[in-house]
Write a structure and sequence with these properties.
By secondary structure, the protein is of the alpha+beta class. 32% of the residues lie in helices and 23% in strands. Helix 5 crosses helix 9. The protein is globular.
Length: 278
């Protein structure tokens, strides 16, 4: 894989993106931060296509008329992009995205998105800088291991750039029937529960028990294989899950809380960027 770093000189900064954050390249694909309102609009259009048209999320009148997935947190976030340079250099090249909210921005806004589903007081007490991850998706033609790895490299670069110590956020399993997802939820709760010191807990009004079956009768390998690639990616990075799932009727998903201490991020992603930055 041909990988190189290309400087980006933003003409406009979305959220808190800093000048000098570099694009990571892999052949025709690149990963970098959004630098214009047009690119943010492309992100919101991509999210609408994936979440609403493909995954069956329920759109309100404004979302349906605009064909955009957007909320109040977009304005305070940095938006990581995967771009395909074969499609040009403008917003039309955006084929993947991840929303990144640093704790400084969340503090000014009044909180993180995750707090609508989880009590994250344990995370707030954790020393070090924190980053919330969310709203991840890629266009259908780009759902490959290579693209997911490129997104992870972008996140690792961002973590290194800003000195982030802990990442967290909500990740989703398709569907709103927790019993239908019983093997996956039970596996996660049994094998990947976060230590109490950094464990989010679903809000009492939204709490859904994750242990749906007897763990003794569970086939861990099969349960792991059934997890979405994004969640498996978090686990490969040493990630943990919080206590309790949450049903998101709007997005037609069952959500779990994910926590990753960045000192556990694998050398494959983090040390590579450190060497390049030097």
């Amino acid at each position: 894989m041909n990988q190189s770093l290309i400087p980006v000189l933003p003409r406009f900064t979305v959220g808190n993106a800093a000048d000098g954050f570099a694009e990571l390249r892999s052949n025709n694909l690149g990963v970098r931060l959004a630098v214009s309102q047009d690119e943010l609009d492309a992100v919101q259009a991509l999210r609408y296509r994936v979440f609403y048209e493909e995954m069956g999320a329920r759109a309100d009148a404004e979302t349906a008329s605009s064909h955009r997935d957007r909320d109040e947190y977009d304005a305070i976030a940095d938006h990581l992009l995967v771009v395909d340079h074969n499609l040009g250099e403008g917003p039309g090249s955006v084929v993947g995205t991840y929303r990144l909210i640093r704790e400084e921005a969340a503090a000014r806004h009044g909180g993180f998105y995750s707090e609508s589903e989880y009590d994250i007081s344990a995370l707030r007490d954790f020393p070090g800088r924190k980053l919330e991850l969310g709203r991840s998706c890629t266009a259908a033609a780009y759902r490959s291991r290579a693209v997911l790895q490129l997104l992870w490299r972008g996140i690792a670069a961002y973590v290194f750039h800003y000195g982030v110590d802990l990442m967290f956020g909500c990740a989703s399993l398709a569907g709103t029937d927790p019993d239908g997802l019983g093997a996956e939820l039970t596996y996660l709760a049994t094998h990947h529960m976060a230590p109490a010191a950094i464990r989010p807990r679903a809000l009492p009004s939204r709490y859904v028990e994750m242990r749906r079956t007897d763990p003794a009768g569970l086939n861990p390998k099969q349960a792991l294989l059934r997890l979405p690639p994004l969640i498996k990616g978090y686990l490969r990075l040493g990630g943990f899950v919080g206590e309790g799932a949450v049903i998101d009727e709007q997005f037609n998903t069952t959500d779990i809380s994910i926590v990753v201490q960045t000192d556990l991020v694998t050398e494959k992603y983090y040390r590579h960027y450190e060497r390049e930055a030097r």
